[in-house]
Amino acid sequence: MGTFVTLAEVLEARGSPLEEDEVWCLLLATTDALLDISKKGSGNMCSVLSPGSVLLSANGSLAFKSCARYEDVASFTAPEVQQGHAASSRTAAEKMVVYSLGMTLYWCVDYHLPQNQPVQLSTELEDLLLSMCEDVAMRRTDLLTVLETCELHHKASMLPPAERLVRQLVEDVYRNSVDHVSIAENGSPLTDRSQAVRDRLHKNLNLRGCEYHKREKFIWTLHMNDGKKDLICLHHKYKAAA
């Protein structure tokens, strides 16, 4: 086994999904690393990430590699990339990788879960991941917002340093390496589950959209007697904050 292990290998070695605190730490570390790459120029930014292309090091650092040919990465690829659109700016490139990262981490919390068993996430984390996986790039959150959200949560929850978590995940893979069969030799787990994860995530996105429209309708009805001008202001204010 080399210096790095992939996120997919971490999940395969443990045989269960990542826990919430682990996701927060990984999200903080990966977003920070991706922003550093982005600052060097949008041409350095990869447009697609997957569990097989996120690399964790025993020293606590992260790296990224090109997705392997055997991987079915369509479910981790932003819709605009699938449509053949090239990144026209640094912001566009970041939005592409935000989608990939969101799908990758959602795959990690869905790993080996029965289809009828809900993902165990707090509303805060699930909403953040869903905002990263918006199909429309303009509605998708950006890397800096994700990083700032993670930093605030990290401080409020007094989580351990992300580097320590990365080291622990790598050590767990080494500990299980005797019976470990690398995903590099068998890409089927990633291929078989990725579309199921995408379907589950889109179901949650649709549910969130329905809930939003219910709340929006309630506010419209509640203030309908306040006059048209006030109603429009309240309506748009709510939409901007949602």
Automatic annotation (TrEMBL):
InterPro entries: Kinase-like_dom_sf, KIND_dom, NonRcpt_TyrProt_Phosphatase. It comes from the Eukaryota. Gene3D superfamilies: Transferase(Phosphotransferase) domain 1. Residues 5-183 form the KIND domain. Keywords: Repeat. PROSITE patterns: KIND (PS51377). The keyword Repeat applies. This is KIND domain-containing protein. It comes from Amphiprion percula.
